[in-house]
Design goal:
54% helix, alpha/beta, 212 residues, single chain
């Protein structure tokens, strides 16, 4: 199934897939039409552009993320001129099996592109190296642990390992009072305010693990 707002590219992709023996169950021009088409007949894989009507921001990618949530076994190939790092990361977090993110300008051979789509339909993951680079840059630029001091990072690392304040003090050769001060600093800088319904130590550890 194809979701591409450009008529020429949509028809071109349809012709390419047909020529290589793939059945195109639908070719639509908007994210809304894609969601409707998949609801009626779930394909093996969808090829979707990122920026689609009506706003041409990231409607196609958002639709892909939604479809992954509704149909975990559905293969999704994002084909775009752009790397939307935040949303691409969200797509991969929804499950890396059967996911592709390819850049239109870097498709060097039609046969290679078709094989990538086949691979994603079969459960493989195919990500353009430029997309991987942008994801890593985005992740480094948005690391929530950047606000922590080196000592607070050490303390948080040991918290994530399940260490008590006493054990952390012994490991770092400081007093428990000093550890408690660093722990409070970690909570404050990570925005983990006191809440009877939350366990801040666990939330801090989860924040650390997600940033790795």
């Amino acid at each position: 199934m194809i979701a591409e707002d450009s008529v020429l590219l949509r028809e071109g992709l349809t012709g390419i897939f047909t020529r290589f023996g793939l059945e195109v169950t639908a070719a639509v021009g908007s994210a809304v039409e894609l969601l409707r088409a998949v609801a009626e007949d779930v394909p093996d894989v969808v090829v979707v552009d990122v920026r689609m009507p009506p706003d041409f921001t990231d409607e196609g990618l958002r639709a892909a993320i939604r479809l992954r949530g509704e149909h975990p076994r559905l293969g999704v190939v994002v084909l775009s001129q752009f790397v939307e790092a935040a949303a691409a990361g969200e797509l991969l977090e929804a499950g890396v099996r059967g996911v592709g993110y390819l850049l239109k300008d870097r498709v060097g051979a039609v046969s290679g592109f078709v094989e990538s789509v086949r691979a994603v339909a079969g459960g493989a993951t195919v990500i353009d190296p430029d997309v991987v680079h942008q994801l890593l840059v985005h992740r480094r630029a948005h690391d929530p642990l950047d606000v922590l001091s080196p000592r607070e990072r050490e303390v948080l690392t040991l918290i994530a390992e399940g260490r008590s304040n006493g054990a952390i003090a012994g490991r770092l050769y400081v007093s428990e009072a000093a550890v408690a001060k660093h722990v409070t600093g970690v909570y404050t800088k990570l925005g983990l305010g006191p809440d009877p319904g939350d366990h801040r130590r666990v939330l801090a550890a989860l924040t650390y693990l997600r940033s790795r």
